[in-house]
Design a protein that fits this description.
heterodimer; A: TIM Barrel; 17 helices; 13% strand; disordered C terminus; B: two-stranded antiparallel sheet; PqqE-like (chain A); Pseudo-rSAM protein/SPASM domain protein (chain A)
């Protein structure tokens, strides 16, 4: 997760310490003072969802699936996560709000010192449930909207889903919950992006997270809708320009990019072009502290059946199951060669990554997409940096020849 | 020591296919090592999936149906509900 507003506009956020080891420089109250040592854990509470979105990484369904962790098991998991020092648990799904013990689990996490946050389609956030979640200790609700009304509803498989999500956003904001947008960019909805930001900023949102499509669950079925490298550059540039335009107008929106660490290299290039070498070097240092693609390190996933995954998108492979081994023991098991290899991947990366000048701030990008192209250390097929950006000396030499 | 272990509940481990426990051996004289599980419809597909993850380190790969593998543990979150 890369904060565009932090890097390009110096907007402080509560995650500066967690993400960039920059708590001391931030004016905002921090989630943690220190750079994170343990992963943020996404917990897919259920596979059930009231919508059927075409890009769902969890391949959620309208029916409940067997094997969900019970409330008691969930609390035992939260105890385990607290003991291991997990800073944040992201309740996700499916649609987590279909579980009637959600507020109980939020409160339990909060009581145990884990910051509870929520990922939801927003359509079930009534005023009552928003207030109940706030009372339980919820710190943030990320609500998914993927385009203007018609496009969003088509994506989400239900007419009226956009309006219902906006009502959810309003209810969440009215309850005093910090609330943000989650937007997965595809070929279909990329043109809608600025208008959706305008529209939802008018509703009251000031935090916008833009996700690149990853190839997990039904996301793999629509990889043909993923943006081309050229269109990805355009979309990311739009996010950068839009962030700066809002800030120039005194509107302090927080914008983030998720799911393709080629963004790190692009942001440095963008800053060098638009803001100068000094700011570009400053941004590079922040991104170096951030650490590049987080697979197997700064993000973890526990699915509704207790399987532990290296990211929420990569659910076809499991490191272990919390029903028979603690999360901490599974996550700390460096005898797993894939887990250990990905944590020490810099010299294992192959192809164009091996000689890329941005390798240390990108670390190869999505390892799940890399797998779809070959193996766990292959380049992310959705890297959109040009050869001149990746290897300026080599291309400089070539042009000299 | 068996008195301290409980049998892990037989809850399903996947809703999108069968779950397969994966074991790899790095060298001829290395021990067989459990390295997690993959979701796949058949043993051959599970082997193919596991190969994409572990070919770089594995000389041999075993895949075993998770639903045929009984787990007995001293840890875990289910408290041995089905024991």
């Amino acid at each position: 997760m890369i904060s565009v507003s932090k890097l390009l506009c110096d907007l402080d956020a509560e995650s500066d310490g967690l993400r960039y080891d920059a708590a001391a420089e931030s004016s905002e109250e921090q989630i943690t003072e220190d750079k994170q040592q343990r992963p943020v854990v996404v917990w897919n509470l259920t596979k059930q969802c009231n919508l059927y979105c075409s890009h769902c990484y969890a391949a959620a369904d309208t029916e409940t699936a067997p094997g969900e962790l019970s409330t008691a098991e969930g609390k035992a998991l939260l105890d385990d996560l607290a003991d291991f020092g997990i800073p944040v648990v992201l309740f996700s799904g499916g649609e987590p709000m279909v579980r009637d013990d959600l507020e109980e689990l939020i409160a339990y996490a909060d009581d145990n010192g884990i910051r509870p946050v929520l990922s939801t389609n927003g359509t079930l956030i009534t005023a009552e449930r928003a207030a109940a979640m706030k009372d339980a200790g919820l710190k943030y609700a990320g609500i998914s909207v993927d385009g203007l009304p018609e496009r969003n509803d088509e994506f989400r498989g239900e007419e009226g889903a956009f309006d219902a999500a906006v009502r959810g956003i309003e209810n969440s904001l009215d309850a005093g919950l910090k609330t943000g947008l989650r937007y997965t960019i595809t070929e279909a909805n990329a043109p809608d992006l600025p208008e959706v930001v305008d529209l939802l900023h008018d509703v009251g949102l000031d935090r916008f997270c833009f996700y690149h499509l990853d190839y997990g669950g039904r996301g793999a079925d629509i990889s043909n809708l993923d943006l081309s490298p050229a269109d990805t550059r355009t979309a990311v540039r739009t996010v950068c320009d839009l962030t700066r335009e809002y800030h120039a107008q005194g509107k302090e929106i927080e914008t983030l990019l998720v799911g393709n660490y080629a963004d790190a290299g692009f942001l440095v290039e963008y800053a060098r072009e638009e803001l100068g070498d000094q700011q570009a070097d400053h941004i590079y240092r922040y991104l170096e502290a951030n650490g590049g693609d987080p697979t197997g390190e700064r993000i973890a996933d526990v699915d509704y059946q207790g399987n532990v995954h290296m990211t929420q998108f990569w659910q076809g492979y499991s490191l272990g199951n919390v029903r028979d081994r603690s999360f901490g023991d599974i996550w700390s098991d460096d005898t797993n060669p894939l887990l250990a290899g990905l944590r020490d991947r810099d010299d294992r990366l192959t192809g164009r990554c091996a000689s890329c000048q941005y390798r240390s701030i990108c670390r190869g990008g999505s390892r799940l997409r890399a797998l779809s192209a070959g193996g766990p250390f292959d380049p992310d097929p959705k890297c959109y940096l040009t050869e001149a950006e990746r290897e300026p000396e080599r291309t400089g030499d070539a042009s000299a020849d | 020591m068996t008195a301290d272990r409980t049998r892990v509940t037989d809850e399903p481990r996947s809703a999108t296919g069968r779950e397969w426990e994966v074991f790899v051996r790095a060298d001829a004289d290395a021990p067989l090592k459990h390295v997690g599980s993959v979701t796949a419809g058949t043993a051959d597909t599970a082997h193919e999936h596991a190969s994409s993850l572990f070919d770089w380190v594995a000389r041999s790969i075993w895949v075993c149906p998770a639903d045929e593998t009984q787990r007995y543990t001293t840890g875990g979150v289910d408290g041995g509900r089905s024991a």
